[in-house]
Structures are given as C-alpha cells and as structure tokens.
Specification:
This protein is α+β, with helices and mostly antiparallel strands. The protein is built from 26 helices and 25 strands. Strands 2, 3, 4, 5, 6, 7, 8, 9, 10, 11 and 12 form an 11-stranded antiparallel β-sheet that branches. It has an 8-stranded antiparallel β-sheet with strand order 1-16-13-23-24-25-22-19.
Length: about 700
C-alpha cells in the first residue's frame, strides 16, 4: 500500500506540478467571452464554442441556461427536464436544519423523497435564471449627469432603483444594476425567478460533510456534498428545455474543466493598505473571538444531541468563516500578498506620474489611502469587537434587536420564539464571553450608562463576575435589550467624520488600476459580485508544502481509513459503512469492473489503492482542479470539455485562502465532489432509482 501511494504521489507530481503552470486565474463575465478568451479555453481543451456556452439570442439552449443562482449565496444547475436541481449539501444545510425536530433530525438521518408528493416545500426559497445582460454604462453616466444637474445626491442604491424601473419586465422577472470596476462599466442583469422550490434529497451530514470543520478547507476530503431540489411552476414541476447532461466517464489528470456559477465577492483590486488593515486590524479580532465561541459551543454539542440539533447550523456557519479567515491571514503572510500589492502600486505610481492629467487626478492617491487607514485602525478595531460580541456573539442577539425595534406590541411573542430556538446554558455562556471581551476591548466612551451600571453591580475588587451578569440578564430580558442596544453607534461614526471617504479613494484606486491595465493591453475581469461567471482549468494535484505531494483524487480507501466511531464528524452511519465494506469486497457501486481487454477508459483511474489492474478499481469521491472560485460558487457545476456535468464545486484548499485579495498560481484549487459518487449514494445507499433515472443515468 505504501509503495503504491508513493507511485500515486509521483504521478501527481508529474501531472499536478507540470500543469499548474497552465492555470489561468479569472472569474470571467459569462456574456463577455471574447474571441481571445474562447481561443485560450479551446487551447486548454474546450470542445465547445463560446456561443454554445452562453447566447441570450440562441434559438435553443446553451450550457449556461441550466445554471441557477440559488438565492445569490450558492449556485445550482438543472439535471432533468422536470425541474430537478442539484447543489451542495452545505447550501441546503439551513433548510434541512429548519425542517429538523427532536423526533426527526434530518441533518443526522438524511432526507429522501421517495415519491413526488414527499418533496418538501421550502418557505422563502427563491432561484434565479439569467436571461440577459445589457451594457448600460452610457445610460447610467447620463443619469448621473442629470441627477447632478438637479443637485440631487445619488449612490448605487438610487441608481439601481431608477434603472431597474426602466427595465422592469413582466411578472416573474427581476432585474438588477451591477457596477463593475467601481463604475467603469454598468450592466443590467435580467432574471427569470421561481419561488416554489422543494427539497428532494439530502444525505445525512455524516456522509455529506464527513470530516466536519476539521477537514474543511483541507485536502484530501471525502464528502458527498450534494442535495437535490425541484423547481415547481404553478404547482407543477418546471418544464425546461435547458438541462445539463451527466457524464460518468470520469476525468483523467490534465483534462479540461470549467465552472459556471455565481461567485459572491472578491477584492482583488484592493490596495496594499486595505490588505494590511484586514490582516492587522479586523482578522485578529474575528479569529480570536470566534475560536473561543466555537470551543464553547462544540463542547456543548458533543455533550447533548438536542444542543447539536439547535446549534448545528449556527456552528457550521461560524466554523466555516473562522477557518477561512484564519487561513486567509496565514496565506497573505506566506505568499507575501502585501509585498505583491506594493510592487503593483509602484508600477501604478510610475504610470500615474508619466502623464500630467493622471498626476492631477491620482498623484496623491496612494499616500492618501495609507494615511486614511492608519487614522481609522483604532476605531475600526473597536467596532470589530463590538460586532463580534454584542451583535453576533450569541444566538439570542437577533431576538433582542428585533424586540428593541418592535412597534407592534409583539415583544413577548418574539422573546418566546427566540428562546425556543436556543439552549439557555449555552446562551448564557456565550453572553458571558461576549460581555467580558466587549468591556475589555471597547473604550468606555462608546458604552452606555446602563451598561456601565450593570457591570458595576457584578464587580467586586476590580473583577467582574460575567457568568453571574449573563445569568441575571437572561432572567431580565428588558435589561438585556438595553444592554444590546445602548452602544453609542453615533460615537463610532462621529470618530470617523473628520476622515476622507475611504470608499471614494477605493473607487479611484480601482479606476486608476483599470485604466493602466487597459492601456497596457492586459486582459482583466471585474471582482466577483454575485453575477454569473465562468472559470476554466484542469484536473491536477497539489503541492501544499515543500516535499509534500497530493494526488488529485480521494477514494473510498481514505474514507474507510478516516472512519472513527468515537468522533462525531468522522463516524460513518453503520448501514453506509456496511455498504461500503461490501462494495470494497467486490460488488458493483463505487468500484467498477474494468474491461477485459483494451486500454482503460478514464472512468477507471488507479490512484491510490494496491488493487490488481484485473480487479475492481475505485473511482474518486472528490477531485481537485485549478479553477478559480470563491464563496457563492458552492454547488456550481464542474463541466468537462463537452459541457457535461462531472462534479460539483464545494470547497477550496487552505493554501488558496488569500484568493479574496490575490490568486496565487499553483496553490488555488477547487475541491469537487465526483458526480459518480453522488449517483452511487443516490442509487446504492438511498435507493432513489427514480431520481437517478430522471437524471438520465441508466
């Protein structure tokens, strides 16, 4: 086994390291695939034309027509002509959690709709199909001049309201104004929307999120991170000609892949000062307090299944962000992102200085950015402590804020419902932690008189008994409301009023950088902003550190090796484990029998197990590509050179976590669940043959 793994690692080195040099960063706007980008993708292996990927005027359908925004926080895609939609399990996590009760914990048990009538409606869910993108830059610039001539103030919200009214569509359509490169370009995006969305399938969290937060952002992973929904239109399954065809042939090392989805936010046009601010001011606060909150809640969840049910969704979100931001700080330092930004700014300053007009507009821009960040660091640090403690440091905080804003006499009802959703002991512990850190870190000029008086009541010999204070507040909800709402936000704002508008400076920085690159003929894509994008890459391995080489696939072998009944996040369900072990002994399923003669097709790629070539071979559970993705791409279809669905993007690797600010060549990877593993779970474990057949897989 060890010898075989060494050979697998060596293979990954040859393929992964060699191919990493061909990785092309970029989240390119789907409607703006020009001839140069099309040629680049075809050189990498794409077998389609750009107009087969996206074409708003096509008489038939294109690949992008089957890709859906899942509430603009995840991506999904159609996999049948009856509205069946696939996305990640972690995108469905909140829905499954909300459905769960003490009697039926669907997070732990899984949810399978064996009949159409069992499909569960999800209140408030909304999905969006992109229909058209219109360049309205000239129109928006004219609107700005018109408003300025009238002496009216405007911002992006006002511009969006006016423009979307102009482009209002018939019922069922929505439009939005999108700014690219801080206003260099403006686009109207038009969507067809559906609001009747029903859950069809979601594996148990032990299968879908195997490895939990410990494996999050790591490689290898072994997750069946998928869920299925169905879109209904007027009470009937959506009839759509657009759907993705599924390929079960698999991928070889180096095969072309593309990801189409709705990446949320990147900040790659950020200045060095902004990155330094994130690393030195904001992240130390968020990372430290969230780590303490996670330890507290994890201990309670491990001790009580009911606490786990109530806090799973909250903890899942907390751990995902905390690990991401902690890794972000490490990667920014490791890959010297601030130095990279400074080098770019040196080039930018030289370009500015070379032209009198540019010098007049931007000559002092870079020093001004540095000065403004230096002036705001202290106040922003304290605001971060306030946000991380009183605003989001407990589950009960939203209830307190809703009670404070209630004008309809519903305070008692809001309190009752809020307390039903949480555990008193956990909340009191979180509140005690929040109060301790808040009073220790936030200057007294920002705290209210009632807050100070409350703290004084529980302070002796200079030491405050925060657990006792938290317990007392729990029994006095009106006092708790005051504690949450008495922070002097106006004082925070007044402390910044004497400073220049950082937002304006960032807009100017982006404009200057855009103009320089445009003049030098450098292709550029705008920062992600939840609009549809395409990114392309190849299947490849990873070298996270010197002398460490990872193959591009994880297999059943690793899943069985990690299984540990004593650890919740690594404990496979007994029936699933038995099925895996039976399969490993030679039955069909995850293991496929190769042909008796002839070359092996890519479906049977031997990656890590010492299995005879003549016997059953494992397919991958998860695989790696070098596609450029970010949050919001979760659930995005991973497509082969022919536009067929081969997997779902669900994570990045820890070495890619500086990618919000900068893509580091050779380290930015996309972690994908193999569609064949998805199909195996549906067919062999869940016995959802009707769904597999509907997906067009025999």
């Amino acid at each position: 086994m060890k010898a075989t793994r060494f050979l697998a690692a060596a293979t990954a080195l040859l393929f992964g390291a060699g191919l990493s040099a061909f990785a092309d960063e970029g989240m390119w706007m789907i409607h703006a695939i020009d001839a140069a980008l099309e040629k680049k993708m075809q050189e990498r292996g794409l077998e389609l034309s750009a107009r087969e990927i996206y074409n708003a005027d096509a008489p038939g359908t294109t690949v992008a027509d089957a890709v859906i925004s899942f509430g603009f926080y995840c991506t999904a895609s159609l996999v049948s002509d009856e509205g069946l939609m696939i996305t990640n399990h972690h995108c469905a996590y909140s829905d499954v959690s909300a459905m769960s009760t003490a009697d039926h914990n669907y997070l732990e048990e899984g949810f399978w709709a064996f009949h159409r009538q069992d499909e569960r409606p999800i209140p408030g869910k909304k999905v969006y199909f992109l229909k058209r993108v219109l360049d309205v830059t000239d129109e928006v610039e004219a609107l700005k001049r018109e408003l300025e001539a009238k002496g009216e103030r405007y911002g992006m919200r006002r511009l969006n309201h006016i423009m979307t009214q102009r482009y209002r569509q018939e019922k069922g359509y929505e439009s939005s104004l999108e700014s690219m490169w801080s206003g260099e370009k403006y686009y109207i995006t038009i969507y067809k929307t559906y609001t009747d969305v029903r859950l069809v399938a979601a594996p148990p969290v032990a299968i879908a999120a195997f490895g939990g937060d410990e494996d999050n952002w790591e490689w290898p992973q072994h997750k069946a991170d998928f869920a299925l929904y169905r879109i209904y239109d007027h009470g009937e399954p959506l009839k759509s000609p657009a759907r993705l065809r599924i390929s079960t042939a698999g991928l070889r090392d180096g095969d072309f892949t593309m990801v189409i989805g709705y990446p949320g936010r990147t900040d790659r046009y950020s200045s060095a000062a902004k990155v330094a601010h994130a690393v030195g001011v904001e992240r130390p606060v968020t990372n430290s307090i969230r780590k303490e909150q996670m330890e507290l809640v994890r201990k309670a969840m491990d001790a009580d299944p009911e606490v786990r049910r109530k806090y799973s969704d909250w903890f899942f979100s907390l751990s995902n962000i905390q690990e991401m931001q902690e890794g972000e700080v490490q990667c920014i330092k490791r890959f010297r992102v601030i130095d990279e930004k400074r080098a770019l700014e040196k080039e930018l300053q030289e370009w500015i200085d070379a032209d009198p007009a540019r010098q007049a507009r931007w000559g002092t821009l870079l020093p001004a950015l540095d000065a403004e960040y230096a002036a705001t660091d202290d106040i922003e640090r304290q605001k971060a402590w306030y946000r991380e403690t009183l605003v989001r440091g407990t589950r009960i905080a939203p209830t307190m804020l809703r009670m404070a804003n209630d004008k309809g006499g519903r305070r008692e009802e809001l309190l009752r419902r809020g307390r039903q959703e949480i555990d008193p002991a956990v909340e009191q512990a979180l509140l005690a932690l929040a109060l301790d850190r808040y009073f220790a870190q936030v200057d007294t000029c920002f705290t209210g008189e009632k807050q100070k008086a409350l703290r004084a009541r529980f302070t002796e010999a200079g030491r405050t008994d925060y657990p006792a204070l938290a317990a007392w507040l729990w029994d006095h909800p009106d006092e708790m409301v005051d504690c949450y709402t008495e922070v002097k936000i106006t004082a925070f704002n007044e402390a910044e009023n004497h400073l220049s508008d950082l937002s304006h400076l960032h807009h100017e920085y982006t404009h200057a950088l855009y103009e320089m690159r445009a003049e030098k003929g450098i292709p550029q894509y705008p920062d992600a902003n939840s609009t549809m994008r395409i990114t392309y890459g190849r299947v490849c391995g990873l070298e996270p550190w010197d002398a460490v080489v990872c193959a591009p696939r994880s297999t059943v072998a690793g899943l069985l090796e990690k299984n540990d009944p004593a650890r919740h996040d690594f404990a496979l369900p007994g029936d699933f484990l038995s099925l895996l072990q039976t399969t490993a002994a030679g039955d069909r399923g995850v293991f496929l029998t190769p042909p008796a003669s002839g070359p092996l097709p890519s479906a049977w790629v031997h990656v890590c197990e010492n299995t005879p070539v003549s016997g059953p071979l494992p397919i991958s559970i998860n695989f790696l590509t070098d596609n450029d993705i970010t949050g919001g791409n979760s659930g995005s279809p991973v497509l082969n050179a022919r536009g067929e669905l081969v997997g779902l993007a669900f994570d990045g690797n820890k070495e890619s976590l500086a990618s919000n600010f900068s893509a580091t060549e050779g380290y930015n990877k996309c972690v994908c669940v193999d569609i064949r593993y998805v199909l195996w779970v549906l067919r062999e474990y869940a016995r959802l043959d009707r769904v597999v057949a509907e997906m067009g897989v025999s």
